[in-house]
Amino acid sequence: MLIRAIDAINQDEQHVPGRPKSLEPGFSTLSVHAGEQRQKPINSITDPIVCASTYTFQDTQAVIDYIEQDQDRGEYGRYGNPGEQVVERKLAALEGAEEAILYSSGMAAMVGLLTAKLSAGDEVIFFDECYHRSRQFCTQHLSRFGVVTRTVKTGDYRAMEAAINSNTKMLISESPTNPHLSIVDLEQFAAIGKRHRVDTLIDATLATPFNVRPIEFGVDFVMHSATKYFGGHNDLLAGVVAGSKQKLAEVRDLRGILGSVNSAHNVYLLERGLKTFELRMQRHNENGQRVAEFLENHPAVSRVLYPGLRSHRDHQLAQQTMRGFGGLITFELDQADWRQTAQVVDRVQVARIAPSLGGVESLIEQPLVMSYYHYPPAERAKFGISDNMIRLACGIENSQDLIDDLAQALARVDRT
Ligand SMILES: Cc1ncc(COP(=O)(O)O)c(C=O)c1O
User: Fold this and answer.
1) Nearest CA to 101 among 32, 38, 90, 73?
2) In this structure, what are the phi and psi dihedrals at residue 204, rounded to the nearest 5 degrees?
3) Among 61, 135, 275, 303, which residue carries the largest CB count within 10 Å?
């Protein structure tokens, strides 16, 4: 029964309305099997790594048939490779989307989507906590081509609606946001877009479809840095945009021109990482919750931002709409300056100092130093980045080890 359901998904029938829930495969079953042929070349259980920049035709008639019959086969590597198609189908199934398009990084996905959808004179509106490189692409680069970017406070739905005019083409937010972990009311966000016939885009990198599936709330496009939880092992870069076939058609066409595709080896690593996606997410969620609770009760910590905590501004919304809250925690030290904060980061031994998140290894960083070093203090304050802020991306190590390690690092906050 379940295998029939996966076969149906693999034949693009995942959106049969009203299919009984009992026929919906579970998350791990999808992660392991969706998108793959049951019987693979040379009877291998794994997909082959196809290192080909081009794909051959038997003769000229085969080329003509391919063009005239719109055959489903490869032609040239810039349009993708067979492994990429498997992962795209797998991610579409996990996301509950008709289609997913893979890119060579999360930013390539964002750039690919926005350049396909926006033209001179168009406007986009961001919630202000959205990933800073996404905003930067719009304000510094799309602006050169006549696209206007507006920004409103995260969660201010009235301000977002008020900023819409006849040129507005897209509303963009991250949820949860990074590093503040604000949660967007996806239903409200999608409804504003629908009321004004404006597309909506959620960067759900921090949530993943295991924790929330924005398309189910009516959002048009979901993007992820697949570098994070999808890959899951801090060993690859990739990105994905998911949505309806119709809305993504021109996006895929442009990717074929840009060529921001994945190498065969990269996509194999991504497919392999996805096999354990649910198991890893369960552990990330568990570690995030336990470590956040520990930090909240620690006397050296003045504030913890984690949607799973009752003290979080969006806790209720998060509880209503999400299955779990991921591994990312942002916290502030009590009465510590940037140097004292850096000392705590340096004393941590299990988590390694690095940007990124979502991999098996825990990572820790001080946003002031890692991402905002060149920003003047007033600019940092505008983005809510404080001197005493630490961002911890919990990996899948044992939570007690992460807690014991943080306890020793926090025990000696130097107040001299
Ligand atoms: C929320 C979010 N979106 C997008 C990106 C960009 O992804 P990538 O680094 O894969 O280009 C990142 C990367 O840090 C991110 O954290």
Assistant:
1) 90
2) -105, 30
3) 135
> What is the value of pTM for the model shown?
0.94
Nearest residue CA, atom 7 of ligand 1? 106
User: Is residue 24 in some structural domain?
Assistant: no
pLDDT of residue 359: 98
Residue 178 has pLDDT above 70, yes or no: yes
Ligand 1 atom closest to 228 (CA): 10
Total domains in the chain come to 2
Question: From CA 161, how far away is CA 190, in angstroms rounded?
Answer: 11
**Single residue among 207, 241, 271 that ends a domain in this structure:** 271
* Whole-angstrom Cα Rg for the chain: 22
d(CA 60, CA 73): 15
Q: Give the closest residue to 303 by CA, choosing from 380, 389, 362, 377.
A: 389
Evaluate whether 104 touches 237 at the Cβ level (below 8 Å). Answer: yes
Model pLDDT for residues 180-198, shown as the tens digit of each residue: 999 999 999 999 999 999 9
Residues with CB under 6 A from ligand 1: 105-107, 131, 174, 178, 203, 205-206, 225, 227, 237, 239
List, for residues 146-172, the tens digit of each pLDDT value: 999 999 999 999 999 999 999 999 999
